[in-house]
Automatic annotation (TrEMBL):
Organism lineage: Bacteria, Bacillati, Actinomycetota, Actinomycetes, Mycobacteriales
The keyword Oxidoreductase is assigned to this record: yes
InterPro entries found in the cross-reference section: FAD-bd, FAD_aromatic-hydroxylase
Classification via PANTHER family: OXIDOREDUCTASE-RELATED, POSSIBLE OXIDOREDUCTASE
Organism for this UniProt entry: Nocardia iowensis
Gene Ontology MF, one: monooxygenase activity
FAD-binding domain location: 20-349
UniProt keyword terms in alphabetical order: Monooxygenase, Oxidoreductase
Protein name (database record): FAD-dependent monooxygenase
């Protein structure tokens, strides 16, 4: 099958330039939105058969919040903002150890910030894009061929697309990266941990409404957030010597093995996972480090290019920022796509570099190496609540965030 135009169901509208975006995650949908606003005809290729709206919390502040504003997403996101909630640190059996009042985080991050379930950000983007781009689920890229004027993309259903810009936003295990830049092993820096996150079907037991309950022990963190029916979610991170073996085991058995000794909300979350293990986002934690994010008319965006990992707490924000800047760069350079991509990369690299470094430093907060580290971390969290120390800590967090 040969389809020469990426026009699909909106083909009659604008005979603009053609872009193909691979991946309908945060980066891909944001890129589709931004490029559409500039008159591009956009096709989005997503391997999953349906939308992937799972995940735990994402934070938008600093450049990530500014990008959400420029993309026009803030009005849709604000009603879904979780805001600054009370965090409770818990014992292994779920009993409360101590609370970190919402005011501590609020004063550190300021009011230009949103805290959202990843699914709410995905929904806001999807709603903005669904009617203006041709989104093809259950499809992936089989081959790519590039000339100076276009990229020919062969899809898994045999369709061929001719496109002036190809955006590889297909996540940390990017197929576009593999096809254009080579094997994942060249770029994946394994941080030796696993991450799991999934929405909860029913309100978690033992976690009061409006509270995020977090257990932090040597080598692991488990967090359960109760915001009521259909608004509750959970997150796990743990150190492991062999991420490949964990992936082979699968989310249900692996998370149960790593956290099955815990009580409270965690035990309930694991029971819910057993009922539907496919709902979980479960992956090894590793950064993508590359010297170049583009080649000719092909550009990588989001985790595919620079995965900062969950330890940065900033992957979605960077995906929005990167997509927005990409739109600005291609608008400024007209038909000269390679120059636009160079300019874009130069503008974004310092922020990515900073977030990757912060993530590596942050590993110990999610997976402290020993009991002593757990204890020292708790001491710091308790101390932050003392007025003099609080303002020092808040200034340090502000500097890191912005
Ligand atoms: C369901 C889900 C839940 C997540 N939960 C969390 C979380 O709780 N905490 C956290 O820190 N991060 C989470 N992440 C990762 C987080 O979304 C990203 O780090 C960040 O938002 C950057 O987004 P991205 O679009 O670059 O990557 P992703 O959000 O991973 O999106 C990549 C998209 O590309 C698609 N894709 C992959 N391969 C192909 C292919 N060959 N062809 C076509 N499409 C392909 C994927 O199905 C996915 O939709 C989650 C990701 C997903 C998909």
């Amino acid at each position: 099958m040969e389809a020469n135009e990426n026009t699909a169901h909106h083909g009659a509208r604008t005979p603009g330039r053609r872009a193909t975006v691979v991946g309908a995650g945060i980066a891909g949908l944001a890129a589709a939105l931004r490029l559409h606003r500039q008159g591009w005809n956009v096709v989005v290729i997503e391997r999953a058969p349906t939308r992937r709206s799972g995940g735990y919390l994402v934070n938008l502040h600093g450049p990530g919040y500014a990008a959400a504003e420029r993309l026009g997403l803030v009005p849709a996101l604000t009603p879904r903002d979780i805001g600054f909630f009370t965090s409770v640190l818990v014992h292994p059996d779920g009993r409360e150890k101590f609370r970190i009042p919402a005011a501590v985080a609020e004063a550190a991050v300021g009011n230009r910030a949103l805290s959202l379930f990843r699914g709410d950000l995905e929904s806001a983007l999807y709603d903005a894009v669904a009617e203006v781009a041709d989104i093809r689920f259950g499809t992936t890229v089989q081959a790519l061929a590039q000339t100076s004027g276009e990229v020919v993309v062969t899809l898994s259903d045999g369709t061929r697309l001719h496109t002036e810009l190809l955006v590889g936003a297909d996540g940390v295990h990017s197929r576009v990266r593999e096809l254009v830049f080579g094997a994942e092993t060249e770029y994946f820096v394994d941080l030796g941990h696993m991450v799991g996150a999934f929405p909860l079907e029913t309100v978690p037991e033992h976690v009061p409404q409006g509270v995020g309950a977090t257990f932090i022990g040597p080598g692991r963190t488990a967090a359960v957030m109760n915001l009521g029916p259909e608004r509750s979610s959970t997150f796990f991170a743990y150190r492991c010597p062999d991420p490949k073996a964990e992936l082979a085991l699968g989310a249900g058995p692996a998370l149960t093995r790593a956290f099955g000794d815990l009580g409270g909300g965690v035990a309930d979350a694991l029971r819910q996972l057993e009922a539907d293990p496919t709902a979980a986002y479960f992956d090894s934690v590793g950064q993508i480090v590359m010297d170049r994010w583009s080649h000719g008319r092909v550009v990588l965006l989001g985790d595919a290019a620079w995965c900062v990992t969950v330890f940065a707490g900033y992957g979605a924000a960077l995906a929005l920022d990167g997509a927005d800047r990409l739109g600005t760069a291609v608008a400024a350079h007209g038909d000269d796509i390679p120059t636009a991509l160079d300019t874009w990369e130069t503008s974004l690299r310092p922020e990515v570099h900073k977030r990757q470094a912060l993530a590596r430093k942050g590993i110990g907060r999610f997976a402290p190496p020993s009991r002593t580290h757990v204890w020292a971390g708790e001491l710091m969290l308790r101390a932050i609540q003392l007025p003099g120390i609080r303002s020092l800590a808040q200034r340090a967090i502000q500097r890191a965030n912005n």
